[in-house]
Amino acid sequence: MNVLLINGSPRKEGCTYTALSLIAGELNAAGIETEILHIGGQPVGGCVGCRGCAKGNGCVFGGVVNEAIEKAKTADGFVFGSPVHYASASGNMTSFMDRLCYAGGKYLAYKPAAICCSARRAGTTSTLDQLAKYPQFFHMPLVTASYWPMVHGSTPEQVMQDEEGCEVMRQIGRNMAWMLRCIEAGKAAGFAHPENPARPMTNFIR
User: Fold this and answer.
1) Which of 125, 77, 71 is nearest to 96 (CA)?
2) Mean pLDDT per 10-residue run, the chain (206 residues)?
3) Phi and psi torsions of 192, nearest 5°
C-alpha cells in the first residue's frame, strides 16, 4: 500500500513538509510506502472550466497536476497539506486541488484522505475548512486525530517545538495506517465500497 502526500507550500522543505514528514514517518513505521509530492515554487494556473479533461487525458494544462493524477491512480490514500496564506490554503494549492479534483477525481474516490496545515499564528481553521471540502466530493473517508490537524511555527525548527501539533500529525499517520488496513481486510472479506449512482444535478430554480 502507498499514500501520496501533497505539499502545497512554495517551500519544498519548510513547515508544511515538516508536518507531512511526521505523518509519513508513522505510515512508514506501519509498513506503508509514502511519497511527498511538492507542487513547486512556480505559479500553478487555476481551472478554467474548459472541460478538456473530459477526454480522459488529464488536465489540458498538464504540469504537476497531471503528474499527481498519474500517481493517484495507484495510491491507496492521500494527505493534502498547505501553509496558511491569508486565512486560506496557498494560491498554488487551491489551483492544484481544483484541477486535480476536476480532472482526476475518479482516481481519488473512496480512498482515505487526511488534511493538515501550517501557520505562524492564525487562519488555520478556515484553511482546514477549505481543504476538507475536496474529499467530501469523492466519498473519501476523512482521517482525523484528537485535535484539528495544524502545526505552528515560522521555521521547521519551530514546528518541531509545537509538541501538541506534532503529536496530532503522528496520530493522523497512525490512524491512516489503521484505516487502510481495515479497508484491506474488508476487501479480503468480500466487502467493496458501495456503487453510488450519479446524483441529480439541479439548481435553485428547478
Assistant:
1) 71
2) 98 98 98 97 93 93 96 98 98 97 97 98 98 97 98 98 98 98 97 92 79
3) -105, 165
- The structure's pTM equals 0.96
**The three cell numbers locating residue 10:** 512554495
Residues 181, 31: Cα–Cα separation, whole Å:
10
The answer to whether residues 29 and 53 touch, using CB atoms and an 8 Å cutoff, is no
**Rg of the chain, C-alpha, whole Å:** 17
Nearest to 89 by CA among 56, 147, 44: 44
Residue written as grid cell 518541531:
160
**DSSP assignment of 75-111, as one string?**
-SEEEEEEEEETTEE-HHHHHHHHHHHHHHGGGTTTS
> At what angle are helices 91-104 and 124-136 packed, to 10 degrees?
10
Which amino acid appears at position 176 of this protein?
A: M
Whether 137 contacts 101, CB under 8 Å: yes
Using DSSP's 3-state secondary structure scheme, residue 42 falls into: coil
